[in-house]
TrEMBL record:
Purpose: RNA helicase.
Main location group: nucleus
Natural source organism: Lasiosphaeria miniovina
GO molecular function: ATP binding; hydrolase activity; RNA binding; RNA helicase activity
Domain notes: The Q motif is unique to and characteristic of the DEAD box family of RNA helicases and controls ATP binding and hydrolysis.
Protein name: ATP-dependent RNA helicase
Domain Helicase C-terminal: from-to ranges: 410-613
Region (Disordered): 34-89, 450-472, 638-667, 724-767
GO cellular component: nucleolus
Amino acid sequence: MADDGLLLNFELGDVPLTSQVKFKGGRWRDRVRAQKTVNKDHQVAAPTDDDEADRPTKRPRTDDDVPGRRFKVAKANNANDKPPSYAMKTGQISSGLFTSNPAAVSAFNDHKDEETEPAQPSNAPLTDEAENFLALGLSRRVAQHLATKLEMKAPTAIQKSTIPLLIKEDHDAFLQAETGSGKTLAYLLPIIHRIMALSLNKDGTSKDIQVHRNSGLFAIILAPTRELCKQIALVAEKVLRCTPWLVCTTVIGGESKKSEKARIRKGVNILIATPGRLTDHLDNTKVLDVGTVRWLVLDEGDRMMEMGFEDDIRTIIGKTREVTLLKQNSEGVVLDGVLPTRRVTVLCSATMKMNVQKLGEISLEDAAHITASKSELDKDSETGNDAAFSAPAQLKQQCIITPAKLRLVTLTALLKSTFARRGTVFKAIIFISCADSVDYHFSLLKSTTTPEIPAPTPDTPYTPPEKPNPDTETTVALASYITSPANPKVALHKLHGSLAQPVRTATLNAFTVCKEPAVLITTDISSRGLDVPAVDLVVEYDPAFSISDHVHRIGRTARAGRAGRAVLFLLPGSEEGYTSLLGIANPVAPQLYESVLQKGLAAAVNLPSADSSAESEKQTWSTRAEALQLHFEQRLLATPPGGGSADRGLKSKGAKGNKGRDIKAQDNPLLDAARQAFRSHIRAYATHVRDERGFFDITRLHLGHMAKSFGLREAPGGIGGGVARQTHRAPAQKGVMGKPAATSRQSGGGKVGKGGAGDKDDDGLGVVDETAARRMREKMMGVMNAASEFNIG
């Protein structure tokens, strides 16, 4: 072939030839960063004529000089060697917990441990010896029963103000008092006293005609949740033990309507119900006669309005008022003169929100506003601050400012330090935003080993273990990670609205009667009215959706004069301003996460797995925190022995958002639970009330960092259109909400900014579509209103 005269001249220069570096395995982001680092190492700047002779040769960077490198670069020995292959050990790597975290803006107090004079309890029983239940007008029979059987010798301030008025007057009443102040007995005792008066003379002797369970229904008590109805019924039954001829019962959702009708047919004097189920019985149960009803009590009125029970309450009030009030029952017992001559409505609430005022307009007529004292009423009307009025004075509130990546290890350290000494804290409640997250944290923190049965000895013969309750088989377990030599056993419980009613009742009862240190992981279903004894700590791991919910959450501790502590988890930045809305009566002391980690991780954590030698060698709290986080992540990535065989080949929930890169979540149920909990948590975060959305802005969440708090290496997809980043070449996929879901590249982690070049994350990804975020909030608010008891997920 003839030469075409084309000459090629390649100038190679003096730069030595280097083999091409190629990385395999691991995450795409890690490979890109490693490739950039290697390319930078291999670049050699050409010297200029001016400084070629004077400047010394630059020493090439070695592997040891590269900060944060997680793998070594193998070098070729000669030109004939093949380019090396680089496998990333993702199973042994955890990104730094203490790097790239946003800075806190709060001014932290350096003298947190200084002992201050404890505040005087604001909801404790009165100490004046002259103040007793007999002096308030109750019968001697009831007063002696309270003092001897129930060990209640003195009333609280709200009981002192309420009981004489409801005994002597027939006016409607609005009871407003802080949580744990005894509002339940404040309206129960006058009702029971006046019903008992139908059977007793003034001197305490019995009348010829005695009222019994078939004498008529005299009082209806409405409560928003089934758990609160059960608790009110339990309190009423304890008081009614001095009057065995009177009966109370409950009609709530989740139970057999046939058995409820049977109880109503047998006869009941006090009926405790949820609004929806009572409306059903008023429409369909003919034996339910409200002609003798004298009292209608609306307990936790603000919560019932928030849950959408306004129409049911209107129906109940209308049906009871349209029935003619009977002056005597079917047995000829005269009711007027002893019982009220009109139907009395009692509304109870810890706050004076707008929905409570609306409910008062619907139900109350010429009502008396009753508070603990006149001074507190004046103070509340001047400040207009419901939260300040409703929080007990002896309650200590703290907030831990912790970055998203450190939330899980900080919670573990807090619980570990809480149960480090025996007798300091007996029971704790952890509030989480959604049911999926409750399920995941319960599965993560519970023990995976079966307790060993000690061998029998002549002194201690063998005793068979107690038969477990089938209703609590999946909701009660022994805890791991948070135990200590002082408390080797800590009982872990979970409770949310998606559980069956028998399971909910049995779990709450198990937590109430538990004789060992116990932790309850729950949603807002447990925030209203529940009175569990010996609760010393309340942890708001996820902030409440509104200030009123926060007040009721922290009201589960510091009840009836007991001391208590409430801890709120907040992210650094805008969320720190949320504390300004919580009232001034109990200032919230900010605390940095480092102090919690130092205290909780001063000793090694008892890991549930047998191989914990790597963690035990760590000596500092920071290395223990990193080892603990790595342990959580490895548990999610590991495949359980024989796990997933029944579900092999099935897609995990929400797997479309991770199409092509799902790590066989069906083989590890804990991984699937973590991903679903993360999705539900992000959706729940978008449902904060409008006034607080400036502090809890979903567009400011760093999804990758938040995923670390669930033990995930990266944020899963399938969250919804409100969080998906809009890139110009991203393929459209359907998410769980029917909107374009986040792609695998989009959901890999990064801050969700508001717009502009300065708001892009480290990977150069785009920003969130604000319109889509607004649409997601509107849709999620509809989900919240329709969900049972704000149970998202």
